[in-house]
Amino acid sequence: MDAKTAAKATGTITVGNKNWEFPVYKGSIGPDVLDIAKLYGESGLFTYDPGFTSTASCESKITYIDGDEGVLLYRGYPIEQLAEHGDFLETCYLLLYGELPTPSQKADFDYRVTRHTMVHEQMSRFFQGFRRDAHPMAVMTGSIGALSAFYHDSTDIADPTQRMIASLRMIAKVPTLAAMAYKYSIGQPFVYPKNDLDYAANFLHMCYAVPTEDYKVNPVLARAMDRIFILHADHEQNASTSTVRLAGSSGANPFACIAAGCACLWGPAHGGANEAALNMLAEIGSVDRIPEFVKRAKDKNDSYRLMGFGHRVYKNYDPRAKIMQKTCHEVLAELGIKDDPLLDVAMELERIALSDEYFIEKKLYPNIDFYSGITLKAMGFPTTMFTVLFAVARTVGWIAQWKEMIEDPKQKIGRPRQLYTGATPRDYTPISRRK
Ligand code: SDX
Questions:
Q1: Residue 269 CA, ligand 1 centroid: distance in Å
Q2: Helix crossing, 103-114 with 88-97: angle to 10°?
Q3: Residue pair 369/155 in contact by the 8 Å Cβ criterion
Q4: Are 318 and 70 in contact (CB under 8 A)?
């Protein structure tokens, strides 16, 4: 913990007639924290915070979100500026190393990542074991974990060189695995990466090229894909990143940790929301059906939620959603899609929701998943690939947070406690005497 976070004050917890004092640390921006690590030892009390709504699990220097202002910073740089001026591999370098690369650092990083994009040839046999109609996220979770069966020379987490090689391998190989998952699902042959293409163009080429003819990547779509990767790259201690950190805290190898994060991202409350949001827009189907769905979303007795709306941290517009919406219009214009009924439904649903008392009072705004599905569908991806694309982008965030956790001298295995409300001690009854 550096000087910024050194104890600046203390906080007191009072239970009954007892008081306990704990240090308060100040970050560079954002809420102060009360260090309660000694609470149980001194008071015999646990804190209780299901979903960790008020709990900081770690100290981090990577990403900062101001949910009330709708601000997202990667290593201090606003997401709007990075998405506008940089490319995804520059963002990867920034998240991993903490600073924007110089021209020579960028060229070297691009070179190193590009030359790790091929996967071990036997990985293609691994894919043959899946059903063609397997959800691509099942394939991704399995194949990312399987990387640890191939790259033994980068699984020693105590070796910083091996940690960096594993990081580069993941950033480079996950798009290749994602494209393979897509090709396998549509029965087309795998397409090898091409070193003369940049990251996003290479990914689109692996997804859409076929052996029978040359495939030219549309530069506007490649730029849109690259920007979508930037928007999804990292996001503080979200569920999948926390999963990666917890898995990594046991010393598990980096490939296994990223596979765990991928599994968590799949959930519809998290990274699976982009697929769920597009399915929701398709289910609504037309603008005149929006009121019945908004009514259901507001009904306390109905668990139905508007997918792509709301966020644990953003209580204002998700800054990524605004850039996503702009990218959506660019892609539709480039593809000559004049009136996409799904976009009409999305725009009208957003207008209605943002003017509805329920959404205003609960501070529910569109999040990154609201417009991404329309964009990705227009680019030719099936809905089942949407979360896979999120995983491709988030791999660098998972890796950067995993490295930070491993290199944090304070880190130890994560092991939360509980509030136990189960049976109190009782004696075993032999089955012969149970009624
Ligand atoms: C991502 O954490 C991250 O940073 C995640 C992410 C990242 O980049 O890693 O940003 C990516 O996961 C974005 C979120 C994608 N998920 C969805 O779009 C699914 C729909 N949204 C929700 O399920 C929900 O908003 C969450 C899961 C995103 C956040 O849930 P919280 O913070 O636990 O909030 P909550 O469930 O306690 O909701 C607060 C209130 C509740 O009403 P009350 O019980 O107080 O009466 O708001 C309501 C909820 O019922 N509510 C919604 C709603 N989301 C919350 N009502 C209708 N529609 C919704 N979408």
A1: 7
A2: 100
A3: no
A4: yes
Q: Can you tell me the distance from the alpha carbon of 201 to that of 223, in angstroms, rounded to the nearest whole number?
A: 8
Query: What is the spatial distance between Cα 6 and Cα 28, in angstroms, rounded to a whole number?
Result: 11
Q: What Rg value do the Cα atoms of the chain yield, rounded?
A: 23
Confidence bin at 1 (pLDDT 50/70/90)? low
Direct distance between the N- and C-terminal alpha carbons of the chain, in angstroms, rounded to an integer: 59
Pocket lining: 101 vs ligand 1, CB cutoff 6 Å = no
Nearest 5°: phi and psi at 386?
-65, -45
Give mean pLDDT, residues 291-310: 93
Q: Summarize the confidence of residues 6-28 as an average pLDDT.
A: 91
Question: Which is it for the CA torsion 169, 97, 389, 55, positive or negative?
Answer: positive
Contact (CB, 8 A) for 113 and 172: yes
* Whether the predicted pLDDT of 3 surpasses 60: no
Any ligand 1 atom below 6 A from CB of 270: yes
Atom of ligand 1 nearest to the CA of 300: 46
Residue labelled with tokens 């959506």: 328
pLDDT in tens, 85-110: 999 999 999 999 999 999 999 999 99
Q: Is the dihedral of CA 119, 121, 126, 128 positive or negative?
A: positive
Q: Kindly report the CA angle at 384 between 217 and 269, in degrees rounded to 5?
A: 120
Q: Which residues are tagged catalytic?
A: 311, 369
Ligand 1 pocket, residue 321 CB under 6 Å: no
The token pair at 178 is 């994602």
d(CA 176, CA 192): 8
DSSP letter, residue 149: G
Helix axes 386-406, 369-378, angle to 10 degrees: 130
Where does the pLDDT of residue 6 fall: very low under 50, low under 70, confident under 90, or very high at 90 and above?
low
**96-113 as b/e, with b when 16 or more CB fall inside 10 Å?**
beeebbeeeebeebbeeb
Kindly report the pTM of this predicted structure. 0.95
Ligand 1 binding pocket includes 117 (Cβ within 6 Å): no
Residue 212 is encoded by which pair of tokens? Answer: 């029978």
Decide if 167 contacts 254 (C-beta within 8 A). Answer: yes
Name the DSSP letter for residue 247: H
